[in-house]
Structure prediction request, 102 residues.
Amino acid sequence: MFEGYNQHFDGIARLTILKGLAEQSDGRLNDAMLQVVLQTFGINKGRDYLRTQLAWLDGEAHAIRLLEVGSAVIAEILEAGVDHVERRRIIPGIAKPSAPRG
Prediction:
């Protein structure tokens, strides 16, 4: 691939996760449902990849909060994550959302 491909790919995956969470009425999804969200958009990576991206969004970007319940991980979008999705603030390492069309 080209130089920087992995970072670009990860940024798109992170944005896809944030958008999936932002679409929920309570801003939360478990990791199994987030896996489906990623696969819907052609990001066919395993659960380890997803959990690595969730950990980054929590620990580095402070865009989500994680809660472990048994073997599941629940992600909840935080204000910083919503601000990124809605283009009020851009978080480095996450792909920039497209401008609204219309």
About this structure: The mean pLDDT is 96. The first helix runs from residue 5 to 22. Residues 24 and 77 are 9 Å apart (CA to CA).
